[in-house]
Amino acid sequence: MYNEITSNKRKSVFLVMIFIAIIIGLGYVFDRVWGTGDYSMVGMAIIFSLIMTSVSYFSGDKIALATAGAKQIVQTDNPYLYRLVENLCITVGTSVPKVYIITDPAINAFATGRDLAHASIAVTTGAIEKLTNEELEGVLAHELSHVKNYDIRFMMLVAVLVGAIAILSNIMLRSHLFRGRDNNRGGGNLGGILMIAGIVLAILSPLIAELIKLAISRKREYLADASGALLTRFPDGLANALEKIATQNQPLRTASNATAHLFIANPFGSGKKFSNMFSTHPPVEERIKRLRAMGK
C-alpha cells in the first residue's frame, strides 16, 4: 500500500514536469517561427499559465462546487453524513472540511480545495441512500485522502495547464493564419521545416496534454483508493461501494468535462471500452481488484 502511494506521487511529479516542458517548448517553437526572436512568446506562455494557475488555485473549488450544483450543509441538516466525515477527520487528525450535498440519484462524490484548511467534500443523495455505512465511509475516506494527499490542489493545477496549452495553441495557430507566411523568420528549407513543426506541435499539444492529464488523474485515483483503505483499515468497504457504482450507477445530471476528474467515479457513466480509454478514471474492475488484494 505504501509502495503504491510513493510510486504514484513520484510518477505524477514527473508528468507535471512534462506539462511545463510542453508549454515552454510551444512558446519557443512559435517564437522561432513567427516571433521576433526575443523569446517574447516563451515569456507570454509562462505568464499566461501563471495567471490561469493563480485563478484556479484561489477559486477553483468554488467553481467546481457551483458547477456540480452542490449545497453546503451543517451538522443538523444531515447528522449521519456529517458524523461520518467528522469521525474520519478525528482518525486522520485534521479539521473537518465543509460538507456539501448534491441532489442527484447517481452514486458519486468528490473533494475539492487547495489545502486542508480550505477543503470541501460533496456527496450525492444517491450515495447517501444506496450505500451502507461501511461503503459510504470508504467513499468518504477516499475523498478525504484526496484532500490529505493534496491531490485536489495538484489536479486543479494540472487541469489549468491543460487548458493553457489548448488556448496557447489556438492563439498561435490563429496568429499564423492571420499573419501568413511572410513573417517566417527561418528562411529557406529550415524555415519551412520549422513552420511545419510549429503547426504540428500546436495541433498535437492539446491532445498530448489531455492524455497526460488522464494519466495523472488515474494514478491519483489509485493513490486515493490505497490511502482510503489505509485510513478505514477496511478495503472491502470501498470495494463494495465501487461494485454498486459499477452495477447500479447512472450519469450525473450536472456532469461536466471540467470537473469529471474530481469525482470518485466517472460521472458520465461507464460507457464502452473505447470511450473508457479516454476516461479520467481507471477501470472500476481494476480498482476493485486492487482493493480486494489489500484486504487479504
What does this structure look like?
By secondary structure, the chain is mainly α. It contains ten helices and four strands, in the order ααβαβββααααααα. It has a four-stranded mixed beta sheet with strand order 1-2-4-3, sandwiched between helices. The radius of gyration is 22 Å and the shape is elongated. The mean pLDDT is 80. Residues 77-293 form the Peptidase M48 domain. This is Protease HtpX homolog. It is found in: Cell membrane.
The SSE string, one letter per element, is: HHEHEEEHHHHHHH
* Strand neighbour order, sheet with most strands: 1-2-4-3
Which structural category do the helix and sheet elements fall into?
Answer: mainly alpha
End-to-end separation in angstroms reads 12 Å
Q: Work out the count of structural domains.
A: 1
Largest sheet: 4 strands, mixed
Count the E strands. Answer: 4
Catalogue the unreliable spans: none
State the shape.
elongated
Radius of gyration: 22 Å
Percent helix? 55-70%
Detail the topology: elements first, then pairings:
Elements lengths: L1 H33 L5 H29 L2 E3 L5 H14 L5 E5 L6 E4 L7 E5 H6 L2 H16 L2 H29 L8 H45 L2 H14 L24 H4 L7 H11 L2
Parallel strand pairs: 2-4
Antiparallel strand pairs: 1-2, 3-4
Helix pairs in contact: 1-2, 1-6, 1-7, 2-6, 3-5, 5-7, 5-8, 6-7, 7-8, 8-10
Pfam family, one: Peptidase_M48
InterPro entries: HtpX_protease (IPR050083), Pept_M48_protease_HtpX (IPR022919), Peptidase_M48 (IPR001915)
Cofactor: Zn(2+)
Quick overview of this protein structure:
The chain is mainly alpha-helical. It is 68% helix and 6% strand.
